[in-house]
Amino acid sequence: MSEQNQLAEIGIFGGSGFYDLLENAEVVEIETPFGKPSDKIIIGVVGGRRIAFLPRHGKSHQYPPHKIPYKANLWAFKKLGVQRIISPVAVGSLRPDIKPGDFVICNQFVNWTHTHGLNQRDDTYYHGEKVDGIKHSEKVAHLSLAEPYCSELRKVVSDICEQEKILHHKNGTVVVIEGPRFSTKAESKFFASQGWDIINMTAYPEVALARELGMCYVNIGLVTDYDAGLEGNPSIKPVTTAEVIEVFNKNNEKIKELIFVIIKNLPVERSCECEKYLEQAII
Fold first, then answer.
1. Catalytic residue of the set 39, 102, 197, 227
2. Which GO terms describe its molecular function (predicted)?
3. What residue numbers does the annotated binding site for substrate cover?
4. Which residues are annotated as a binding site for phosphate?
5. Distance CA 140, CA 148 (A)
6. pLDDT tens track for 22-63
7. Which of 114, 166, 170, 234 could tie 161 with a disulfide, CB 3.0–4.6 Å?
8. Which domains does the chain have, with CATH numbers?
9. Is 225 a catalytic residue?
10. Helix or strand or coil: residue 160?
């Protein structure tokens, strides 16, 4: 894939509240072999670094989780020259000690989605068929996701949360469900019994696709609720959409401030292994 003179080095997925982060913003439209991205991509500057921003659900939140064009979104970022992706997501807590308003810096995920195949949830560019712009796409690739998130990015985020005294959890396993519905109490109880920490509908397949394209990826979960409630605590009610929006909006400034500081503190050169995994995966 030929990058467009690296129009951006860092990509951010998020909601429309992030638009005002960017200085000297310009709008770009990118065609991909996988259809159009969720929306137009905004490119601008934050702390002297060139940033590409894309609302993963679309500017008007028109795409539900299972209809987001994930492959187009990641491909478009790569085409622009993006090397690192910061991905804030709203999550539900499965544990009493992970509270609404906390941040969770994910180190593992469990994929519980099910609409795979050649649709929006497709989680690989490697189907053994040639695709323009995708290196080795005609081959088979068995990519390692034992450590799915970029270690360098995770450390930067964790260190900043410590410095800024932001309530956070340095590790966490996110279980990603299909959506758009929320969990039943039985499902939520099962997920918690497995030792998983938080729950979300969009954190997969972004991370897998980023790894295939050699991009670093960090998932920052903002806890908005307790999913279907906590067993033994009847005062905590099952999540509602209104609750998610309310808590997320209350913490939107905190998320933006965190991302701003992350960008300013990212080393210019990558010292992680993220861009090397693909070469090791090709058969």
1. 227
2. S-methyl-5-thioadenosine phosphorylase activity
3. 201, 225-227
4. 16, 56-57, 202
5. 19
6. 767 899 999 999 999 999 999 998 888 999 999 999 888 889
7. 166
8. 88-281 (3.40.50.1580)
9. yes
10. helix
Closest-CA residue to 120 (of 67, 74, 177, 56): 67
| Known catalytic residue at 197 | no
How far is the CA of 234 from the CAs of 64, 99, 191, 245, in angstroms?
A: 30, 16, 19, 22
What is the distance between the alpha carbons of residues 61 and 229, in angstroms, rounded to a whole number?
Answer: 26
Q: Is 45 left (phi over 0), alpha (psi -120 to 50) or beta?
A: beta
pLDDT tens readout for residues 139-164? 888 999 999 999 999 999 999 999 99
DSSP 124: -
Tell me the one-letter amino acid at 159: D
pLDDT < 50 positions in the chain: 2, 16
Please state the pTM of the whole predicted model.
Answer: 0.92
Q: 39, 102, 197, 225: which one is catalytic?
A: 225
